[in-house]
Amino acid sequence: MMAPEQHPVLTAPAPAAEPVRPTPAGPCARLRRHRRWLLPLLVVLLLAQMAAAMVTTAVRQTPTIDEPVYVATATDSLREHRLRYNPEHPPLGKLLIAAGVAVADPHYDPSYTGPQGEVGRHLLYESGNDPWRLMLWARLPVIALTLLCGLVVFAFARDLAGTAGGLVALALYACSPDVVAHGSLATLDMPAAGFVLTSAWLVWRARRRPLPYLPLAGAALGAAVATKMSALPAVPVLMVLAAVSEVAAERAGVGFRWPGRPRFGGRRRVLSALGGAAVVAVVAVAVVWAVYLAVDPRLRFAPAEPVPAVHGLRGRLTELLPLPEAYRAGMRVQFGLEDHPWQGFLFGHLYTGSLWYYLPAALLVKTPLGLLALGAAGAVAVVARRRLRPAAPYVVLPPAVLLAAAMTGSRDFGTRYALFVPVFLAVAAACVGTFRWRWRPALTGALVLFAAVSSLRTFPYYLPYANEAFGGPAHTHRLLHDSNVDWGQDLGRLADRLRDRYPGERVWLVYKGSGVPSYYGIHGADPRRVPPERVHGLLVVSDSAVAKARGRLAELIESSRPVGDVGRSISLYRR
């Protein structure tokens, strides 16, 4: 039987494929395409506006009370390589200032003798130097370090809450008036806060890679302790956090290798924890020694002023510290300052001694409401959200312990003693983005904008800032004093005001600061040294002196007519 004939199946040729034409990209696609350069651009813009605010402020401000001491000490360390002035503050922050002093290249007389405050005044006003130029160069390194700290804020917040959270944190940091104010001065508060934040961030990162990050965290912690002694309470906190990070790394299988042992066990856990803490502590101590050796390799310590003796438990603990003699002498000076009965001023009340709630109250006044709200909500999120809970000790504990230690101090002089609080609050604020509220993005954006506008309204007078709940910067002098409002920064502006509006008038001056009024063309007599009936003309009083006015000065102010202010830190009266 023959098989049926097979016929081929004919099919129509497939139509030629049309070339694929690209479709126009939508906004989201374009955003993703430009994401690589958009994020760096936003970071640069935020830091650029912060830099502009700080440089503008630095150019116009005369020396504040502490700055001449630091600049003179920096100059002496740079030229003479000796540990002589200002032992109560370690040298690192002043070495940073010395980088700018080296560029300014001022005339300096190392044979001049006197207290450290007089040495600073002599350098600025009696040695043929231009104080405007010298102070600007001394402030620029601190400005640069403050901007670098902004990158740490962004990186820390980004690790916790993503890119959007990092930008929120950076925006709040860049608009914080306290950070801008003290970041534009040749002082030590902002560098110390920045180093503590950096150490906390690096210890957090050590949970995944302990080997590179724990030594770096120890170096940052040592830098903080080598800048201000008030950072010492952070040492045990960050040692404990380093131990926690090392144990977490062991659990994740990325910790240090221990030959001949099971991968994880109780004994190994203890060894890992102790090892992580020891690495941070040893590196921190080594950094402190290195800083003192950088000033004087022979570690000669010849203080210009007597160092008080400290007895009891404090004295014994000071002697046990494995730190240079000059550092321990500086601690004794600090203890002596703490024993002094200082005056404070809070909410219109003048008092002698200290109030334990002074710093929280002052921070409530001087922190933007947007940062307060987002920072508090973010702190709640870090503790409440399960995903963020491991980060809670790293974000909350360092500022909480440092604030608790600062609250026991006897000097109620300003929020600069707790400058780490707004810095860590900015990082915590990033965690608000983890809440799944419907209106969360709009509310977060509104609060960030509110903080930015509040900061812009106080420009360029950042030191006397107060938030809107307390009446704004114009009312700060009624609530707080000293570096919260008036730190001697507006002497140059006062000279301009007197020259422009009150030429030739008799001026009576009560000025609180380190500047020399006559250098700026201000020739005013002290009204407290003559009978009140002889005081006629223009009465000019620093707001810190107004806050503490008693007796004759208070009578003069009450019997005068207010006619204005300068920089919201100096009040003008007509008699």
Structural commentary:
- This protein has 21 helices and 6 strands.
- It is mainly alpha-helical and 575 residues long.
- The chain is globular, with a radius of gyration of 29 Å.
- The N terminus is likely disordered.
Topology:
Blueprint: H1 27-33, H2 35-60, H3 67-80, H4 92-104, H5 116-125, H6 131-174, H7 177-183, H8 189-205, H9 210-225, H10 234-251, H11 266-295, H12 312-320, H13 325-338, E1 343-346, E2 349-352, H14 358-366, H15 369-384, H16 392-407, H17 420-429, H18 440-458, H19 491-501, E3 507-510, E4 538-542, H20 543-547, H21 552-558, E5 561-566, E6 570-574
Parallel strand pairs: 3-4
Antiparallel strand pairs: 1-2, 4-6, 5-6
Helix pairs in contact: 2-6, 3-4, 3-5, 4-6, 6-7, 6-8, 6-17, 8-9, 8-10, 9-10, 9-11, 10-11, 10-16, 12-13, 15-17, 15-18, 16-17
- Rg of Cα set: 29 Å
General shape? globular
Range of helix content: 55-70%
User: Distance between the terminal alpha carbons, to the nearest Å?
Assistant: 136 Å
Low-confidence spans: pLDDT under 50, at least 5 residues?
Answer: 1-24
The major β-sheet equals: 4 strands, mixed
- Give the ordered list of helices and strands: HHHHHHHHHHHHHEEHHHHHHEEHHEE
Average of the residue pLDDT scores: 91
Main sheet strand line-up: 3-4-6-5
Total number of helical segments? 21
Structural class call reads mainly alpha
Structure summary, number of beta strands = 6
Q: Report the sheet-strand fraction.
A: under 5%
